[in-house]
Amino acid sequence: MTAHTSAKPDDLEKKARSSYFGLPGLDVSVGFPQATPASIFPPCTSDYYHFDDLLTPEEQAIRKKVRECMEKEVAPIMAKYWEKAEFPFHIVPKLGALRIAGGTIKGYGCPGLSITGSAISTAEVARVDASCSTFILVHSSLAMLTIALCGSEEQKQKYLPSLAKFDTVACWALTEPDYGSDASALKTSATKVEGGWILEGQKRWIGNSTFADLLVIFARNTSTNQINGYIVKKDAPGLTARKMENKIGLRIVQNGDIIMKKVFVPDNDRLPGVNSFQDTNKVLAVSRVMVAWQPIGISMGVYDICHRYLKERKQFGAPLASFQINQQKLVQILGNVQAMFLVGWRLCKLYESGKMTPGHASLGKSWITARARETVALGRELLGGNGILSDFLVAKAFCDLEPIYTYEGTYDINSLVTGREITGLASFKPAASGRRSRL
Predict the structure, then answer these.
(1) Are 394 and 380 in contact (CB under 8 A)?
(2) pLDDT digits (tens, 9 = 90+) for 1-10
(3) pLDDT in tens, 142-166
(4) Which of 41, 42, 60 is nearest to 50 (CA)?
């Protein structure tokens, strides 16, 4: 018997692959020298209507600082980590140094930004990588803000300073396998026991959950039947979090399934300000504004990449930018960015003046994500074959936009929130059906 015939089939397959396909792929700049990949990010050229003039000097400074960090530290590695669906933990200290975690929270080591400043920082992160912006949004605009708005003074002092520096990371767990848009019907239970609470249930789609140090979890109080909030430590007995696989968008974000079996939470980690589902709305109102700014940033990045690409890439002896149909699509993208920015900026001003309503936030989120969907599709067309390669950003942006279009309220649900506000009539549930007739 020869050594070859005694080898296992798997070993033979690996050897064959190594012999014939073992060479690494060409670097994009070598394999396709006509256009610069997104790892070398282009300058921002999307502020056609000079919206920077609407920002305060402080807001302009935070925009510049975040933009420089994202272009230098994240752009070179984002495609690689996106393809592997892994999180680049080594950049977390660099994100922490930006001092944007905590956003509008004042004190406790948080930056106390204006909501416009926080929104601008969200857009600048998303311009280069949407997954990083989602990581920060979950940590900051959901988990940290819940503690700031609904936590006790002791909880704020205990948890917020380390979260603000990214020394610890948090996640926010509301959605369940059976309850997405219908989140208020959640089943996870909280039962009062001596010295604390016992949590039982399951959460799904929870970003950051596989590595978060703190988990803000919402559960139904078995005594009152109302929704309460709890801070759970990652090493709590009975708590497990498993990564969800095979996502086509936001692949760097580590979404997880959380399973809780008799998880004990001490009394001092129950959030005293969450006593009904309505108490989550004051958090969701801010986070929905932040989510609306993610597609703005994504669309800015798509425009910047397309603008450079069309001038670099040549076909039929001329730059793609010289063809009328390409110019028309590029201008359509640019127009979308201007309109999206203006709606997002006005949403922030309504919030700052105390005039923003849930309908305002929902219309902003739904309309902006719809325009961004159109924008990334146009960008995908402009890049032709390279529009399906993550190296050129647009394919990645195209995929990343899909979960953003859905989370924090789908387009349809957010439309119905606004519809309820302008008509006074709620239409979330189907009309009660009559008795079935006997056949």
Answers:
(1) yes
(2) 444 444 555 6
(3) 999 999 999 999 999 999 999 999 9
(4) 60
